[in-house]
Amino acid sequence: MIGTACGKVILLGEHAVVYGVPAIAVGIDRGARAEAARTDAVSCTLALGDAVRASPADGSDTGRAFGAVLAACGVDFGVEVKAETTLPPGAGLGCSAALGVAIVRALDGLVGRAGAPPDEVAERAMAWERVFHGNPSGVDTTTAARGGCLRFERGEAGASVRAVRLARPLVLAVGHTGVASSTRTMVEGLAHLRERRPDLVAKSFEAIRSLVDNAAVALETGDHAGLGHLLDLGQMVLSGLMLSTAEIETLCRVAREAGALGAKLTGAGGGGCVLALVAGDAGPVLGAWERAGFRGFATTVGGATETP
Ligand code: MEV
Question: Does residue 50 carry a catalytic annotation?
């Protein structure tokens, strides 16, 4: 049985989304793939690419996450899962969520639940994600399972998710700082700042809320110049929350100088990736990044919500 999932970039709302502020995220055309097969052995093993082998009892994070996902999917028989991803880990592109969703889909196929609704799949994948990220909002697993462009809001009684209909396709350049960062560490860092400076963080979250609201309108009306400006403002707010780095600032500046409509960090920050919105051709931004010593790729987001 085979399961797939897409990676994601968060346009606006990362971190604040953990505390109930809405976020807008888009699925990208890189992701994860998993293959699951029953085995006669009682053991369950997971092979992640060529590098990692794990089983629920081995004490590793990956092993514990695999055990949690087996339980969430009701798998109580021997199974061998092979998973791989085209997403760099620790880059803010939803690598672990995509793997979790792909593995859930592959396991669902073994227990007669192939084609389960994306939100159910995403919920089961949260068992995997919680092991790595402690208190994930769910935006990564939901986007990995649904794809498209989504407005996601965490709530007491579960998440509210709606598709954002794009008036025209979004062309994004995604650049990597070359520095991996841990989502758990970055989320914990902001939680500590929130304890010390609750007013600062509350004001920043309110600013992010209005950026997200305005961005939804810009996306739905095709106002990409306005959206670019909102992305730049989002980067300023995230920098004020100590989530940016020198490499992130350089990538944003180089992208803007090369004609990007706006640029900001995406995901947890502290390293990872920057996204830049471009007017059509991502080539000039990617070229400028390369000359500055950074690697990147372009991705186009179409519009309707779709399951990969
Ligand atoms: C990570 O991709 C996004 C964060 O907002 C964490 C989360 O939503 O769980 C930083």
Answer: no
